[in-house]
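Dear support,

We are seeing what looks like truncated structure output for some complexes. This example has six components. We would appreciate it if you could run it in full and send us the complete token output so we can diff it against ours.
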Amino acid sequence: MKRKSASSLNPRKKPQQRRSRVTVDTIFEAAIQVLLANGLAVTTSQVAERAGVSVGTLYQYFPNKQALLAAVVKRHVGGVVDATILACQAAHGRTIGEMCSAMMNAFVEAKTRRPEVSRALYLPSAAVDADAIVKEEAARCAQAVHDMLVTASDAKFAQARMVSGVLIASIVGPTRAVIESGGNRATFEKLKQHLIALGVGYLKEVSGTTRGDPA
Amino acid sequence: MKRKSASSLNPRKKPQQRRSRVTVDTIFEAAIQVLLANGLAVTTSQVAERAGVSVGTLYQYFPNKQALLAAVVKRHVGGVVDATILACQAAHGRTIGEMCSAMMNAFVEAKTRRPEVSRALYLPSAAVDADAIVKEEAARCAQAVHDMLVTASDAKFAQARMVSGVLIASIVGPTRAVIESGGNRATFEKLKQHLIALGVGYLKEVSGTTRGDPA
Amino acid sequence: MKRKSASSLNPRKKPQQRRSRVTVDTIFEAAIQVLLANGLAVTTSQVAERAGVSVGTLYQYFPNKQALLAAVVKRHVGGVVDATILACQAAHGRTIGEMCSAMMNAFVEAKTRRPEVSRALYLPSAAVDADAIVKEEAARCAQAVHDMLVTASDAKFAQARMVSGVLIASIVGPTRAVIESGGNRATFEKLKQHLIALGVGYLKEVSGTTRGDPA
Amino acid sequence: MKRKSASSLNPRKKPQQRRSRVTVDTIFEAAIQVLLANGLAVTTSQVAERAGVSVGTLYQYFPNKQALLAAVVKRHVGGVVDATILACQAAHGRTIGEMCSAMMNAFVEAKTRRPEVSRALYLPSAAVDADAIVKEEAARCAQAVHDMLVTASDAKFAQARMVSGVLIASIVGPTRAVIESGGNRATFEKLKQHLIALGVGYLKEVSGTTRGDPA
DNA sequence: CATGAATGAGGTTTCATTCAT
DNA sequence: TATGAATGAAACCTCATTCAT
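Here is the complete output from our reference environment:
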């Protein structure tokens, strides 16, 4: 599996017809299942078989294996990022406590909705090509966090860019650790609380916080 | 690259003679170089060639490719963890601020001593087998952090285990982001400050902090 | 060429389509040719090339080299055994002389129909895995001989099982010797006569023969 | 394992010194053990290790692996053949019954003295190079049988050469079958009786037997 | 003489991708 | 458009053999 030029990673054709859409979804799901079962040793044939289509058909929708994996990762990560961004936008103008609550909640909820999918995708996400996608999505997310932070009602940030970057990057690790150690709803809730503490604590430290202190 | 049984990942023979040691080190360094140049598409022949030995020699020290990559990762990650652990032990009994300073400083220093090595190893670290090693090392580190935290002079932690886990997991992401975006000494210093803020802020939030404030 | 688990020796897919059947036959024939030319130092690539297909195709029908060789041997030995069994069944109820004639005739005919094939396959037949197949086939044959012997009109056998085993095992050696020394039709005929003598003589010795001699 | 020119199969140096003799014997024994444990997948290193010497030393006594295996086979087969030849010579002038008794007895005794050795050596005996040795020895044996047969007191053979060849070749198969199926002393005795019957019966059939019939 | 680290040709096998049907 | 047999480059790894120590 060598690296391909980035351009060749785009899906071969837009699945505009309904049937195509279904097929692509089936393939995505199949890829996840195989990933879960075999780790990174996925083969296109395995995915095709699991999806109930022929390899030929698979190659009608994806120019190559990389593109397939990248697409699967993008859909998953993109979904999580979208949810997080939405929450960030909704929290504009709030306090950093409310912001962190909203953001961590959205992130953890989205990431743990189907924990086994997240687990399956940690490996391919690190693969050379998907890696770029993950970074893009992270940047998109960081941007939203940044845009939110600067509207905080109770804090000002000197280095908002760096802060949002650190913030978003810092929550990924603990979340992964919890998911991979096979957490359940309860653990995920606890994680959420800790991530909020992590965020709030950090933001307090790096901001000229306007605490509700007297005088 | 299929998964191997964990047992087969151990080095084939201990490099006892001086010459062997040198050979193994050369192979490690070569592996890093090739990783840096080619990403995960390393081949054993490339590594051997770069190291100036034959494939046969390489296979005399490592039973298979996995074991080689795992060993390289282990050496690197282990070094970083060792440095961090040492710092943690030296900080027993201090305040959480001092603890975070010591720990973040040691971690970032060790991780960025040769940034290109860290960068090269992010990929193989995610590969199925090295992954386990990384987790082990992380656990070892978390243990040391835990042991340190419970001795904090100015804080008590209800869930010290979870806290140390979150703490250690949360600093990995930002560090990676900075390293991969090609940071320099200055950036690394800034990162350090932010990680300290992250840690201190988090620990304050989750602890019954004993602030030294009178009245 | 290490030993494989017996299960992995089965053909990978049944050649159901006509084209597949032809391909498999071509591969068999190619394997025999290469065996004849190179002895046991066959390589899968050689076989594929000789068959005019790619290695990949070869591996589509056989999971590994062992399986290929085993299949070739099985087809050959199986054919000889089948012919011998048929002859045995047709000779039920006859005299031991007639039985030996029928059996030796069938065996030698089948084995020497394409002497060069037999010659080519002596080596791989001894290889670890094919060995088991040869034994199975020998057992199948011994069973048929046994079933025939107990119906002999002019003899009774106290240890029919042992007798049939010895009988079948004893004719293999001389046949091989003759084939390997490059015999022709005439030699094969003479061999046949000697094997009949061998069989008849042996059966007379170990049976309570009912010779038709009066008085 | 490619074929070597026959000349390179000779031992590198005659083990004339006592120490050398011991070393060579140790190596032989080691080879048999490894053969027994691993089948044909013997490696020179394994043999050396088992023998407690270095590969280098092994190569001091044998020019290559083939030569080693060939020597092991030759020693074993040669021993069996020698014993058989001796028995044949001692039976000159006797009846065919006595001849067969003597010959089968010697052969089976020698071959089953250490059944596991015989079992271990069936595989390498078929390997390309040892094969030639086995044939030579078989020829040597057939010659002795021939020389014996022509002195039989109670039979004359029209095709003594063919007869002795068939005779010797026919006893190998049953013996192997019994040894490989894990026979014990009792089975070996029974085998002996059957081989005698096989031989006597055959010789009676193909000879103008001079039965002890009156006048 | 013994040692055993080093060599490297070459074998087996996989799997992404194509294209005739 | 779907199929899946065929392709073949290329990866991993072994092991007989050498030779400096």
